[in-house]
Protein backbone atom coordinates (compact mmCIF):
# COMPACT_ATOMS: atom_id res chain seq x y z
CA UNK A 1 0.00 0.00 0.00
CA UNK A 2 1.23 3.49 -0.88
CA UNK A 3 1.64 5.30 2.46
CA UNK A 4 1.47 8.76 0.94
CA UNK A 5 -1.77 7.93 -0.86
CA UNK A 6 -3.14 6.54 2.40
CA UNK A 7 -2.41 9.81 4.23
CA UNK A 8 -3.97 11.83 1.38
CA UNK A 9 -7.09 9.63 1.47
CA UNK A 10 -7.45 9.97 5.24
CA UNK A 11 -7.03 13.75 5.17
CA UNK A 12 -9.45 14.06 2.27
CA UNK A 13 -12.13 11.80 3.76
CA UNK A 14 -12.05 13.14 7.32
CA UNK A 15 -14.66 15.73 8.24
CA UNK A 16 -12.20 17.29 10.68
CA UNK A 17 -8.46 18.00 10.70
CA UNK A 18 -6.30 15.06 11.78
CA UNK A 19 -3.35 15.36 14.14
CA UNK A 20 -0.11 13.43 13.83
CA UNK A 21 -1.30 11.36 16.79
CA UNK A 22 -4.58 10.52 14.97
CA UNK A 23 -2.73 9.63 11.79
CA UNK A 24 -0.20 7.53 13.67
CA UNK A 25 -2.93 5.63 15.53
CA UNK A 26 -4.82 4.93 12.31
CA UNK A 27 -1.84 3.99 10.13
CA UNK A 28 0.75 2.73 12.58
CA UNK A 29 3.32 5.05 11.01
CA UNK A 30 5.92 6.85 13.13
CA UNK A 31 5.83 10.60 13.67
CA UNK A 32 9.05 10.92 11.64
CA UNK A 33 7.54 9.03 8.68
CA UNK A 34 4.34 11.07 8.92
CA UNK A 35 6.25 14.36 8.98
CA UNK A 36 8.07 13.33 5.79
CA UNK A 37 4.84 12.29 4.07
CA UNK A 38 3.01 15.45 5.18
CA UNK A 39 5.86 17.60 3.84
CA UNK A 40 5.68 15.78 0.47
CA UNK A 41 1.91 16.19 0.27
CA UNK A 42 2.16 19.86 1.25
CA UNK A 43 4.77 20.45 -1.47
CA UNK A 44 2.72 18.63 -4.11
CA UNK A 45 -0.51 20.51 -3.35
CA UNK A 46 1.22 23.89 -3.21
CA UNK A 47 1.54 23.68 -6.99
CA UNK A 48 -0.93 25.82 -8.95
CA UNK A 49 -2.25 22.77 -10.81
CA UNK A 50 -4.22 21.80 -7.68
CA UNK A 51 -7.38 23.51 -6.44
CA UNK A 52 -6.84 22.36 -2.88
CA UNK A 53 -4.01 22.77 -0.41
CA UNK A 54 -2.84 20.97 2.69
CA UNK A 55 -3.30 23.28 5.66
CA UNK A 56 -2.06 22.97 9.23
CA UNK A 57 -4.69 24.18 11.68
CA UNK A 58 -3.56 24.19 15.28
CA UNK A 59 -1.65 20.90 15.43
CA UNK A 60 -3.74 19.09 12.83
CA UNK A 61 -3.88 18.81 9.04
CA UNK A 62 -6.66 19.01 6.50
CA UNK A 63 -7.28 19.73 2.84
CA UNK A 64 -8.87 23.09 2.08
CA UNK A 65 -9.94 24.82 -1.08
CA UNK A 66 -7.39 27.38 -2.19
CA UNK A 67 -8.65 30.92 -1.51
CA UNK A 68 -8.78 31.88 -5.19
CA UNK A 69 -11.41 29.16 -5.79
CA UNK A 70 -13.46 29.78 -2.67
CA UNK A 71 -16.22 31.88 -4.26
CA UNK A 72 -16.83 29.18 -6.88
CA UNK A 73 -16.84 26.32 -4.39
CA UNK A 74 -19.33 28.20 -2.19
CA UNK A 75 -21.86 27.88 -5.02
CA UNK A 76 -21.91 24.10 -4.65
CA UNK A 77 -21.19 23.69 -0.96
CA UNK A 78 -23.11 24.28 2.24
CA UNK A 79 -24.41 27.66 3.26
CA UNK A 80 -21.69 30.30 3.05
CA UNK A 81 -20.35 31.99 6.14
CA UNK A 82 -21.03 35.24 4.31
CA UNK A 83 -24.75 34.38 4.51
CA UNK A 84 -24.85 34.51 8.31
CA UNK A 85 -27.56 36.70 9.80
CA UNK A 86 -26.62 39.63 12.03
CA UNK A 87 -27.89 37.65 15.06
CA UNK A 88 -25.72 34.68 14.15
CA UNK A 89 -22.68 36.91 13.69
CA UNK A 90 -23.34 38.58 17.02
CA UNK A 91 -23.61 35.28 18.90
CA UNK A 92 -20.62 33.85 17.03
CA UNK A 93 -18.59 36.92 18.01
CA UNK A 94 -19.54 36.52 21.68
CA UNK A 95 -18.59 32.85 21.58
CA UNK A 96 -15.32 33.68 19.83
CA UNK A 97 -14.34 36.42 22.26
CA UNK A 98 -15.73 35.01 25.52
CA UNK A 99 -15.96 31.26 24.93
CA UNK A 100 -16.39 28.78 26.29
CA UNK A 101 -19.63 30.50 27.30
CA UNK A 102 -23.01 29.25 28.54
CA UNK A 103 -26.43 29.94 27.03
CA UNK A 104 -27.33 31.94 30.14
CA UNK A 105 -24.22 34.13 29.76
CA UNK A 106 -25.05 34.70 26.09
CA UNK A 107 -28.59 35.67 27.06
CA UNK A 108 -27.24 38.14 29.65
CA UNK A 109 -24.91 39.71 27.05
CA UNK A 110 -27.56 39.99 24.33
CA UNK A 111 -30.62 40.58 26.47
CA UNK A 112 -32.66 38.17 24.37
CA UNK A 113 -32.96 34.47 23.64
CA UNK A 114 -30.18 32.71 21.79
CA UNK A 115 -31.72 29.24 21.51
CA UNK A 116 -32.56 29.34 17.79
CA UNK A 117 -29.27 31.01 16.87
CA UNK A 118 -27.28 28.42 18.84
CA UNK A 119 -29.19 25.60 17.16
CA UNK A 120 -28.45 27.06 13.71
CA UNK A 121 -24.75 27.59 14.47
CA UNK A 122 -24.52 24.03 15.86
CA UNK A 123 -26.20 22.68 12.69
CA UNK A 124 -23.72 24.62 10.57
CA UNK A 125 -20.93 23.08 12.71
CA UNK A 126 -19.50 26.54 13.43
CA UNK A 127 -19.81 26.00 17.18
CA UNK A 128 -19.84 23.00 19.46
CA UNK A 129 -21.04 22.40 22.98
CA UNK A 130 -19.84 20.41 25.95
CA UNK A 131 -20.97 19.87 29.51
CA UNK A 132 -19.36 22.37 31.87
CA UNK A 133 -17.70 21.54 35.17
CA UNK A 134 -19.53 24.52 36.68
CA UNK A 135 -22.36 24.17 39.19
CA UNK A 136 -25.38 22.61 37.51
CA UNK A 137 -23.20 21.43 34.59
CA UNK A 138 -24.68 23.73 31.94
CA UNK A 139 -23.53 23.43 28.35
CA UNK A 140 -20.67 25.65 27.26
CA UNK A 141 -20.38 26.76 23.65
CA UNK A 142 -17.16 27.31 21.72
CA UNK A 143 -16.15 27.82 18.10
CA UNK A 144 -15.05 24.82 16.09
CA UNK A 145 -11.99 24.23 14.00
CA UNK A 146 -14.39 24.06 11.05
CA UNK A 147 -15.00 27.81 11.40
CA UNK A 148 -11.26 28.41 11.28
CA UNK A 149 -11.02 26.08 8.27
CA UNK A 150 -13.74 27.95 6.38
CA UNK A 151 -12.02 31.25 7.08
CA UNK A 152 -8.57 29.77 6.45
CA UNK A 153 -7.50 30.97 9.89
CA UNK A 154 -4.66 29.28 11.73
CA UNK A 155 -4.97 31.04 15.08
CA UNK A 156 -7.69 32.33 17.37
CA UNK A 157 -6.37 35.88 16.86
CA UNK A 158 -6.89 35.53 13.10
CA UNK A 159 -10.38 34.18 13.75
CA UNK A 160 -11.30 37.08 16.04
CA UNK A 161 -10.11 39.59 13.42
CA UNK A 162 -12.12 37.84 10.68
CA UNK A 163 -15.32 37.74 12.79
CA UNK A 164 -14.89 41.45 13.54
CA UNK A 165 -14.49 42.16 9.81
CA UNK A 166 -17.57 40.11 8.86
CA UNK A 167 -19.56 41.82 11.60
CA UNK A 168 -18.61 45.31 10.37
CA UNK A 169 -19.43 44.34 6.76
CA UNK A 170 -22.97 43.32 7.82
CA UNK A 171 -23.62 46.45 9.90
> Level of helix content?
40-55%
Strand adjacency order, main sheet: 1-3-2
Strand content: 15-25%
Biggest sheet descriptor: 3 strands, antiparallel
- Tell me the distance between the termini: 53 Å
Structural account:
There is one protein chain. The chain has 171 residues and is an alpha+beta fold. It folds into 2 domains: 3-65, Winged helix-like DNA-binding domain superfamily/Winged helix DNA-binding domain (Arc Repressor Mutant, subunit A, Orthogonal Bundle); 81-169, Winged helix-like DNA-binding domain superfamily/Winged helix DNA-binding domain (Arc Repressor Mutant, subunit A, Orthogonal Bundle). Helices cover 53% and strands 15% of the residues. The chain is built from 9 helices and 6 strands; from the N terminus they run αβααββααβααββαα. The strands form 2 sheets. A 3-stranded antiparallel beta sheet has the order 1-3-2. Strands 4-6-5 form a 3-stranded antiparallel beta sheet. Strand 2 and strand 3 form a beta hairpin. Helix 5 (86-98) packs across helix 7. The longest helix has 16 residues, at 31-46. The N and C termini lie far apart (53 Å).
How would you summarize the topology of this molecule?
Elements: H1 3-13, E1 18-19, H2 20-27, H3 31-46, E2 52-57, E3 60-65, H4 70-74, H5 86-98, E4 101-102, H6 103-110, H7 115-123, E5 127-131, E6 139-143, H8 145-151, H9 156-169
Antiparallel strand pairs: 1-3, 2-3, 4-6, 5-6
Amino acid sequence: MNQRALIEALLFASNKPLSMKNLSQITGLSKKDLEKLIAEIHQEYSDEKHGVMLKKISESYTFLTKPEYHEYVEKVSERSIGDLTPSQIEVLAYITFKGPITRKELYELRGKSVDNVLRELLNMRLITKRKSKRKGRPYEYMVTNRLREILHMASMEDLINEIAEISSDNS
